[in-house]
Design a protein that fits this description.
With 217 residues, the protein is an alpha+beta fold. The protein contains 8 helices and 6 strands, in the order H-E-E-H-E-H-E-E-E-H-H-H-H-H. The chain has one domain. Helices cover 33% and strands 13% of the residues. A 4-stranded antiparallel sheet has the order 1-2-6-3, with helices on both faces. A hairpin with a 5-residue loop joins strand 4 and strand 5. The radius of gyration is 17 Å and the shape is globular. It binds iron/sulfur cluster (2 copies). One iron/sulfur cluster (SF4) binds next to helix 4. One iron/sulfur cluster binds next to helix 4.
Amino acid sequence: MAEQAIRALLAGQPDILWGFADTAWSPYAAPYPTALVMAVPYGEQLTPEDYNEARFDAGIRAAKARIEAILPQIEEILTAHEIRCWIPPVAQRDEAELLAPFPFKTAAARAGLGWFGKNDVIITLRYGPRVRLSAMLIDAVFTPGTPIVQSECPDDCTACVDACPCKALKNHQWTVDTDRSEMIDYQRCNRMRSAFIPRLGRKSACGLCLTACPVGR
Ligand code: SF4
Ligand code: SF4
């Protein structure tokens, strides 16, 4: 019943990609065997020609606002069915490892929403990587999507790798066994984005490797 109610709610938001993932791979599997994962398109699908950082950041914030409006509605459904749930934080635990407690990207691939591109973010067929991911962990077993276990990036595409101003991307084709360090020098990316804190009061959203991706155009 709760699963059907969530499916009905999300059917009313046809531009949002979503799916359920089995969390057996995660340390949260015992209390929460299912993750709902959503991929909300950025407010603007910018191209390299019309990119500017402020617009890109605004597009991310618009997607974030939509997620913040939908998650309580899903929580309400689950609570009404006496099913526990938890919204894991988006924020990374610290600046050393730069890992969030629950990896939304892994969950998205497990839910069948997309694959890890050479830019180390989830590539969806409909929007490429220009989506904001969100997840909710659920103490119930719902019907999972079909996991995606290898990259569908063309071997000869290097648009994201070439777009990165600090050469953080390693031009590596992902499979489910790939370690993040094979794909990206995360510290290098973070250092570049953090260098904007004095000017912007926040890290740069950057995203040049996202706007460059031809998938979903
Ligand atoms: S976000 Fe920017 S710095 Fe980081 S990998 Fe992408 S293009 Fe490079
Ligand atoms: S730009 Fe090309 S290589 Fe990079 S994520 Fe997109 S399809 Fe994959």
